[in-house]
Structure formats: structure tokens, C-alpha cells
Specification:
2 copies of one chain form a homodimer. Chain A has 7 helices and 10 strands. Chain A is of the alpha+beta class. The longest helix of chain A is centred in the N-terminal third of the chain and has 13 residues. The first copy, chain A, is elongated and about 70 Å long. Chains A and B meet through strand 3, strand 7, strand 8 and strand 10 of A and strand 4, strand 8, strand 9 and strand 11 of B. The structure holds a DNA duplex.
Chain lengths: 229, 229
DNA sequence: GAGTGGTCTAGACCACGCC
DNA sequence: GCGTGGTCTAGACCACTCG
């Protein structure tokens, strides 16, 4: 029965949990820990490295390893495909294409995207349903210079997000969350009142510096994005 | 000049980026990779383990290592202290306590928190400024059963978030983001119109199952939470 | 059964950062 | 300088899972 790096992690965590190790406390060096756990230093190292990545401890050469003053943790959100998000709610997923237009990039998009305003883009508006209820309104722009084949796809049966996921990888993405008012047509599609406060996400993706797609996702009234950490 | 795990990661990533490795492709086994990179298998293993954690590849015993079909990535958000958030904007931070009251937990809080409705709580309302502009309205509830010493603190000079961070660790936290309407007093404090759509975060933390604090943070109009990934 | 990844060991060298 | 963590090596055993 040897000591695993998981057991070492669990032991350190339990010592923090029950107060035997307080925030700011200095831990023994890897060599000392390896002796006390009777294992190789590499095993201790892996345990401590993972605790570092998880934001539990802080390490500095020469200074040693300390329990973080306030465990710096970051919340992580998976960015699921809307179909899976809805199916995870236990509802049936349905999709409808509302509008489709080939045009040129409007000014705000050009600025965010670093594409010329004359660039050809495909503009799609779609609605995603959870059962019979509208769930999310999708306002999508696809850069046809980067992705000319998108012009040949009719997005009637399947949403552009799923098509894009299968078709193009990306190297960079930016996502932001904010609140917005329901405009008149938005309220009509989402079944809420004009002026209602709605949660929205905007995402842009690039492939090696070239803009691929920008999407604005407006959720139905009352939507919450939640995570535990 | 030895081969590091970082170089191996970078090499694999570049092969994915330029198409030499396509989504779904099977990579050579660790032993083969170690031979071709002329390094120890542990070095290859670390590179591949990190690529797995980052969602770039998928590994199964016996089946081998594959490039993920669609790189499953998660967005990460640091949850900074509001003071640092504001200072990072280049603005001066200021704080004001608006209201303070010792009371018992309202029903909705008891439900979220699993504390009795008779539990004593400290209810604080505070405003955080970026320069002269209101930035965030904080509506905080502290469980006085878990943290009786909070009753003795006047939160005049410093916000409860900073006090809590220094004072109590937590084992579990839940955070959620949504949109809300500005109520009348909220609009007055944040300098916006009643009914404006505002972005809000709600966070609850626990220490080993015991509720510590619940906070609702309502941001000024137009606030966006952004990350790249 | 056999091949793959998962982990541990014992040892080594190095880079960083205090003193 | 010197102690700490960061990394690499060569070898080993094990656990899972596919055929």
C-alpha cells in the first residue's frame, strides 16, 4: 500500500478544512513531506502542483509553499451547445430559422471583428425552444471570407452553432455576459414584454487571427447561469 | 538541450492548428512519442495529461489518445474583489455603507441557505464607486450563527467582502449571473433609470455545510463580464 | 491476453529568489 | 551561497478496456 498523490492532496485539504493548517501557513518542503508521507518527492510534487493549480496553495522557490490567504478560485463555466443545455433541463429541443441574409458587415461588427465593412457576411436569426417555450434567441454573423461554404448551407433543419462546431475549429474566443432590454421583435419571439431585462451572452471566435463568427444569444426572461466552485 | 513537456505540448498544438492533426485523429502511444521526441515517457505523459485537462485531446486506456472532435473548452472567470476590479479599470475606489440591520433570515434566504427563518442575520447594503461614479450595489446577508463576530464590526470604512475574505474561508460556493430590473432605490443609488436592465451576480458560500454569507451584486448599467479562452 | 495510459520511485540537474 | 520548487530520466508495476 503506497501513498498516492491523491491521498496527499486529500490529507492537506482536510488539514486546511479542520484548521490544522491556517491560511498563510507555511508547509514543510517537498523533501520533508516526502519523508513524512514515505514516498518519492515527485509524488509530493504532483500533489502540490495540483493544489497550486486549484488555487489552494501558493508556491515560490526558496520561499516554500503556503496556504493561500483567501483561496483564489475561479469559477468555470462550460459553454454548452444550446441543444444539450435544453436536453439537460429534461425538455425537448426544437429549432427554427427566422431570418437569413447575405450582406456586408455592419460597422459595430467590423470594429469588434477587425474585418472590413465591405466584407461579405451571412446574417442569421434563429430561435431555440425548450419544449414549446422559446428559450434562446440567436443573432449570428458568419464571415464569408473565412467560411465561404457557409453560403451554401440552408440552416433550416439545424442551427448554425452545431454546423460551425463540426466544421471549423477556432484558436481564440471571447465571450461576454451582460443584461439587455427586450426590443419589440425580441419580446415577440421570446414571449416576454418589451423592455424586460434579459440575460445575454456574446461570443466571437477567430482562427489564427481571422474572424470566423460572432453571435449574440439572448435568453428567455429569468434565465440564470449558475455554477458551483 | 533536452525536450521539455512544454515543447511537446506546443508541437502537438501546432500540428492541430495547421491541420497536420485533425479532430478525431489518433496520436501515437506514449512510448512511441517518447522515442520520436527522444525523451522519457513521463515527459510525454505530462504533456498529454495537460492537453487532456485543457480539453484538447481525449485519452482512453488501450484505445489511445485522440484529438477531440470539438475542443471542449470552458470559460473561466476570476471572481475578483470589487476594489481590485475597479482599480484595474484605472479608477479610484470608494466605498459607502448605506444600511445595516440585525434581523432574522427572510424566507427566500432560508430556502437558499438551509438556515432556519429564525436565524439571526446581519443585513448590509453597500455601494462601491469607480471614481465618482457608482459601480456596484451590494446587498449582503451574513449568518450570525456561523459568524457572531460580524455583529461587532462596523462596516463603515471597509466593505464586508474584504472583511469576510480575511476572516473566514469557505469550502463551497455557488455563483449565478442573471439580469434584473432596477428598482426605484436601486436606480437612485446606481444613477440609472428605474426599470433599466442591469447585470447581477449572486453568490452564496458555505463552510462545511454551514451557510456563511449570501450576496447580491448589482452592477451599473451597461456592465459586461468578459473573458477570452 | 495484450496494449494503452496512470502512477510511483530514486536519482539528478537546474532556475529562481532570498540573504 | 544555498534552499526551494521545477523538471527530466529510466525503470517499474498496475488498471482499465478492447478485441
Amino acid at each position: 500500500m503506497t501513498v498516492t498523490y491523491r491521498e496527499i492532496k486529500a490529507d492537506i485539504l482536510s488539514k486546511i478544512s479542520d484548521g490544522r493548517l491556517k491560511p498563510g501557513a507555511l508547509l514543510p518542503s517537498e523533501i520533508e513531506l516526502a519523508e513524512s508521507y514515505v514516498c518519492a518527492r515527485a509524488t509530493v510534487n504532483r500533489a502540490m502542483r495540483e493544489l497550486t493549480e486549484e488555487g489552494i496553495v501558493e508556491r515560490k522557490r526558496k520561499a516554500g509553499t503556503r496556504v493561500r490567504m483567501s483561496p483564489l478560485r475561479e469559477a468555470r463555466f462550460e459553454i454548452p451547445v444550446v441543444r444539450k443545455e435544453i436536453e439537460a433541463l429534461g425538455a425537448a429541443y426544437a429549432y427554427r430559422l427566422i431570418a437569413r441574409e447575405e450582406t456586408t458587415a455592419p460597422g459595430w461588427l467590423g470594429a469588434r471583428f477587425e474585418v472590413a465593412e465591405t466584407a461579405p457576411v451571412l446574417h442569421l436569426t434563429c430561435l431555440h425552444f425548450a419544449g414549446a417555450e422559446p428559450y434562446q434567441l440567436e443573432d449570428r454573423w458568419i464571415n464569408l471570407e473565412a467560411l465561404p461554404e457557409a453560403a451554401a448551407v440552408d440552416f433550416e433543419g439545424r442551427g448554425p452553432n452545431e454546423w460551425l462546431l463540426e466544421t471549423v475549429p477556432y484558436t481564440d474566443a471571447e465571450i461576454s455576459f451582460s443584461a439587455t432590454h427586450a426590443e419589440a421583435d425580441m419580446a415577440r419571439h421570446l414571449g416576454c414584454q418589451p423592455g424586460d431585462a434579459l440575460f445575454q451572452a456574446e461570443r466571437a471566435t477567430w482562427w489564427q487571427g481571422q474572424a470566423i463568427t460572432h453571435v449574440r444569444l439572448v435568453f428567455r426572461r429569468g434565465h440564470r447561469m449558475t455554477t458551483r466552485y
